[in-house]
Design brief:
Elements lengths: L15 E5 L2 E4 L4 E4 L2 H4 L8 H11 L12 H13 L4 E5 L2 H18 L7 E5 L8 H7 L2 H4 L9 E4 L4 H7 L4 E6 L2 E2 L5 E2 L2 H14 L2 E5 L23 E4 L10 E5 L20 H14 L2 H24 L4 E7 L2 E6 L3 H10 L2 E2 L1 E3 L3 E4 L7 H17 L2
Parallel strand pairs: 3-15, 5-6, 5-7, 7-10, 10-11
Antiparallel strand pairs: 1-2, 2-3, 4-12, 8-9, 11-12, 13-14, 14-17, 16-17
Length: 389
């Protein structure tokens, strides 16, 4: 008999009833150190008091109105994002998947309005993850996500992750855009080298293409910059955002330059809940805290501390771990044993991690994690490795 909750997840037998910063408390009272943060969602940890207050204050006044009307919280959040980024305009969604859908539509509408409707192809890369919608799975193209869900949305050209010559060869009169994660998350914590991001920007400029960055997982302070592409000193034309921007409340966004968005006029897109007063109240507080330069400097400092600890962990447990990868507080350990063995051993050591491609165990903790919590995390990871022999 099928479960009342559709069984699309292989769930661990854990029932968390309370969260405190970087800790989750199980129904039986056990305290787990959370290095997953809802898969990079709880950017400020669990039950951050300022986020709780922002949500509670808004909930006592207004939960939802249609986007048929002005929404002051939404306007304020859009203004904040425009002032802090390359963007001239913002559309709010509820998730990264929705952000992907709009990014694809925006790129194709751009060329339609330019009088070149044949330019619909979007170049994407092996190992990518852009959500579970029809556009998202078609963009990623992996058999794991697409098998059984055909016919797939056409118009995506899938290339190897690091084949520069293939990118140039794939550009044609039908190419609309290049879409890439500056750091692959699901694909195994693979950062795109800064010179390669610069090269993609140059290539798009040379051929008049749109450059789309998916910063759903690597954005909102996770790397020590507000957005990961800032390390390369270049800007996209369109950017997908979600996860951390809501600090745990469902919120996403698509940021765009005025030129890239000019085809998106009244009636071309919509969202029932996107940009609602509750979500934007929380998003404004998240951005206020994470966008502070001192906060981002602390993220970078703690990331360096954590990376050094992980490298020492690899040296102590070479039969379990092979190497460290990633940037900022988006790191992973390539494993010498099946990565799910490490994840499961972590449950016994009361630490939560997330599997990723390439036999990697992923760490995307709250950006507010302390050095003391990092030390405890390293000790528990060592305990998990020891249990695996």
């Amino acid at each position: 008999m099928i479960a009342s909750v559709l069984p699309t997840y292989a769930r661990a037998p854990l029932n968390f009833v309370k969260g405190e910063g970087t800790w989750l408390i199980e129904a039986d009272g056990r305290r787990f150190l959370d290095l997953g943060a809802g898969i990079a969602v709880n950017a400020l940890g669990h039950a951050h008091p300022e986020l709780v207050k922002a949500l509670s204050d808004q909930a006592q006044n207004l939960w939802h109105v249609s986007n048929l009307y002005e929404i002051p919280n939404q306007q304020r959040l859009a203004d904040q994002l425009v002032s802090l980024t390359f963007a001239d305009t913002v559309f709010f969604t509820n998730s990264g998947t929705e952000s992907c859908e709009l990014a694809v539509k925006m790129a194709r509408k751009y060329w339609y309005e330019k009088g070149q409707p044949e330019r619909v192809e979007i170049i994407t890369f092996e190992g990518s993850f852009h959500g579970r919608s029809s556009a998202g799975i078609a963009a990623a193209g992996s058999e794991k996500m697409t098998k059984g869900f055909g016919p797939l949305l056409p118009g995506f050209v899938h290339l190897k992750w690091n084949d520069h010559d293939a990118i140039k060869a794939a550009i044609s009169d039908q190419t609309a855009a290049i879409m890439i994660e500056p750091i692959q998350g699901e694909g195994g914590i693979r950062p795109v080298p800064e010179q390669c991001l610069k090269g993609l920007r140059d290539l798009c400029d040379e051929h008049g293409l749109l450059l789309i960055f998916d910063e759903v997982q690597c954005g909102v302070g996770r790397t020590g910059k507000l957005f990961a592409h800032e390390w390369a000193g270049i800007d996209p034309d369109i950017m997908m955002v979600a996860k951390g921007i809501g600090g745990g409340f469902p919120l996403g966004a698509v940021l765009a330059s005025e030129d890239a968005a000019f085809g998106m006029t009244a009636g071309t897109h919509g969202s029932t809940y996107g940009g609602n007063p509750l979500g934007c109240a929380v998003g404004n507080k998240v951005l206020e805290l994470v966008g502070d330069a001192a906060f981002l400097d602390e993220v970078a400092e703690k990331a360096a501390y954590f990376k050094a600890g992980l490298e020492a962990l690899v040296a102590r447990h070479p039969n379990t771990f092979k190497s460290v990868r990633g940037k900022g507080l988006m790191m992973g350990l390539e494993c010498a044993v099946p990565n799910m063995d490490v994840v499961n051993a972590g449950y016994d050591a009361l630490i939560l991690t997330v599997p990723a491609g390439g036999n990697v165990v992923r760490f995307v903790p709250a950006l507010t994690i302390t050095k003391e919590d990092i030390d405890e995390a390293l000790a528990r990871l060592s305990s998990a490795a020891q249990s695996l022999g």
